[in-house]
Amino acid sequence: TGPAVHYAQPSVHLAYPAVAVPVENLACFGSLCFILLMVVALKFQDSIRVKDDILTELQRGDAVGENSDNLSGKVALITGAARRVGAAIARTLHREGMNLALHYHTSDKAARALQKELNEVREDSVVLIQADLLQTAKLASVVKDTLSRWKRIDVVINNASTFYPTPIGSVTEAQWDNLLGTNLKAPFFLSQAAARHLKQQRGCIINIVDIHGDRPLKEHPVYCTAKAGLVMLSKALARELGPEVRVNAIAPGAIMWPEKGIDDVTKKRILSRTTLKRQGSPDDIARAALFLIRDAGYISGQTIAVDGGRSLSD
Known about the structure:
Elements: E1 11-13, E2 20-22, H1 23-64, E3 75-78, H2 84-95, E4 99-104, H3 108-121, E5 126-130, H4 139-150, E6 155-158, H5 173-201, E7 204-208, H6 221-241, E8 246-252, H7 264-272, H8 282-295, E9 303-306
């Protein structure tokens, strides 16, 4: 056999520190560095993507006016808007720059007077829509008429209501259908008709309920049942229509006395049960509505009692 041949292992010598590093070790080290650099690059890319997504969402929110003080040019559809609480809400939202579709049923004179008043402040900013909300098949037309004027709907306020006593033993099916129809059925089907358009604008729905939806009023079982249903509907719609659409309710207390009137003794007794010991005004409801529309971007499925503390009494 020939003489043994010894192959010297090649080395790379670094000037400092003076360590001999085998070539295969250096290759492994280089591969490790490359992998680490790739990981860092990918993490950086993910970070940029997340930041871009956040920026997009913020821009989207700004575009639709979430948590924005500027309501100018946005559109609100208000039912039962010709008088009382509905008219107060209309005036408040109009002052904030909103365009309005004001629904009314029989209050033609009051509706036209309110339209004239508001259009004199800002021309062509208010349209009227006459409809019987008990005619469910026509509710989609209320939404369509609003869209035909402004091509958008940002807010639906279900304010229209029917209120009268129905003592047990005297209730008719017609009364049941009337009270449930106006106070519960119509808000549901109107909201359903507007839902797709509200989602496009990331808008909101406000239902005007009643503290007696939680604390029943003597001799008004059907009305109270309807308003309790509307409270639940507000919660259900909040789940169904989120995250694009917020849905909340406002429960008035002693704001306006019934149109048929009640005696002074009863009025004093009612007000004595409030912690503020006084009557509220329609503007209190209007300001609550404005808050829910403009400032309450993270509130949905809730009922705000505007009752002077009445709900705290026994």
